[in-house]
Write a structure and sequence with these properties.
Largest sheet of chain B: none
Radius of gyration of chain A: 23 Å
Number of helices of chain A: 6
Distance between the termini of chain A: 38 Å
Order of helices and strands of chain B: HHEEHHH
Number of helices of chain B: 5
Largest interface: A-B, 50 and 31 residues
Largest sheet of chain A: 5 strands, mixed, barrel
Distance between the termini of chain B: 114 Å
Strand content of chain A: 25-35%
Shape of chain A: globular
Number of strands of chain A: 17
Radius of gyration of chain B: 40 Å
Number of strands of chain B: 2
Oligomer: heterodimer
Strand order of the largest sheet of chain A: 9-10-11-13-12
Helix content of chain B: 40-55%
Chain lengths: ~270, ~120
């Protein structure tokens, strides 16, 4: 990691943009500029100043590139805004794929479409105020529940846990949540049941746990009957049959972020025995 | 005396609606031009280079959903909450069923074979 940081600092000090393809999986730092494949030949090592004159400009490959979290478009340029490793996903059908920065952070910033766990902090008229860990509480309309009408209000109390989705999340506006999908069905969203335990982990761990081939989840699922809810805002809610089992789960999730695969396997085998 | 020395009316007076009828065509034109000039001078314009939004090939998207194929956030194991388990199957199998369907299409009778029959 220290090595990678040194490389990053070096490229920053020289002020030269690196090609996005060349730094895949490597550390990038905020403020760095990345070159997309189609820009590489035009603004290569020679710099923008000495661009060779072309009589017939080569047709630029017009592929759309998506820049995900941690990257920002600035005109034609691609800038890094977060510190972390650059990742890339090949496109499914055409296009230039997706680039993003895999970063480690604890502060959640609401993003449209994210599923999060919120705590109802206030009821004000037609909306609930929900704390989601962002800079501002999100608003949740009482009509945004499955089967809710003006007459038939959902039974939501202050202090309840809500699993919902963002429909409005701008940097200048109050975020807005709903507990139904576009078809009006709950699909598991709404008030999360009684009891259970809520705790916070880093945002990176949530993504790690929700990855389709996550070993931790597969191992945990074999232990005993349990239920988990993951919010993209770093909150995890767990519930098992006894309080002891619930606490064990919470401890596993909190600890597994800084464990190696070997250590994890040891712990799971020990748990399975007991 | 009066025919020789017509009293000159001021421009502002000539520009008034009821005075326009008696004017000859030349003075009319002159007045119109002047008016146009004044109007065009009064228009405001921004002293900026032309803002032309080029079609950008980079799309910004701040969600991790698009980047990583994340699973649905609610999970239940070993029959703790049957409803959620059903939901898990439904939500997490969306991408997988599509792959399976594609395979099935390939396994089916190919076009060539159909032609032979």
């Amino acid at each position: 990691m220290a090595e990678a940081a040194a490389v990053g600092a070096e490229s920053l000090s020289s002020g030269q943009a690196r090609a996005a393809r060349a730094v895949l999986g490597q550390l990038v730092l905020p403020g760095e500029e990345l070159l997309l494949p189609e820009h590489e030949d035009a603004e290569g090592p020679g710099g923008a100043g000495e661009r060779p004159l072309r009589l017939s400009p080569a047709p630029r490959s017009r592929v759309r590139v998506v820049c995900g979290p941690g990257l920002r478009r600035c005109g034609e340029r691609l800038l890094v805004t977060k510190c972390g490793r650059l990742r890339h996903k090949e496109p499914g059908g055409g296009g230039g794929g997706v680039y993003w920065v895999d970063s480690q952070q604890k502060r959640y910033v609401p993003v449209k479409g994210d599923h999060v766990i919120g705590i109802v902090t206030a009821k004000s008229g037609d909306t609930f105020k929900v704390d989601v860990g962002g800079s501002e509480p999100a608003s949740l309309s009482y009509l945004a529940f499955e089967g809710a009408t003006k007459r038939n209000r959902p039974n939501v109390q202050v202090g309840d846990l809500i699993y919902g989705q963002f429909v409005v999340a701008n940097k200048d506006m109050e975020p807005e949540m709903v507990c139904i999908d576009s078809c009006g069905r709950a699909n598991g969203m709404g008030v999360i049941g009684q009891d259970g335990l809520l705790f916070k982990v880093t945002l990176g761990l949530i993504r790690k746990l929700l990855a389709p081939d996550c070993e931790i989840i597969q191992e945990v699922g074999k232990l005993y009957p349990l239920e988990i809810v993951f919010g993209m805002n770093g909150r995890i809610w767990v519930k098992a049959k006894t309080i002891q089992q619930t606490l064990i789960l919470a401890n596993i999730f909190e600890a597994c972020e800084h464990m190696t695969t070997e250590q994890r396997r040891q712990i799971f085998s020990r748990l399975a025995e007991s | 005396m009066a025919t020789e020395h017509k009293p000159k009316l001021s421009k502002n007076l000539l520009r008034m609606k009821f005075m326009q009828r008696g004017l000859d065509s030349e003075t009319k034109k002159q007045l119109e031009e002047e008016e146009k000039k004044i109007i065009s001078e009064e228009h405001w314009y921004l002293d900026l280079p032309e803002l032309k939004e080029k079609e950008s090939l980079i799309i910004e998207e701040q969600s991790f959903l698009l980047c990583e194929d994340l699973l649905y956030g609610r999970m239940s194991f070993r029959g703790f909450n049957p409803e959620v388990e059903k939901l898990m199957l439904q939500m997490n199998s969306k991408s997988r069923t599509q792959e399976i369907e594609d395979e099935i299409v390939e396994v089916d009778v190919s076009d060539e074979e159909m032609a032979r029959r």
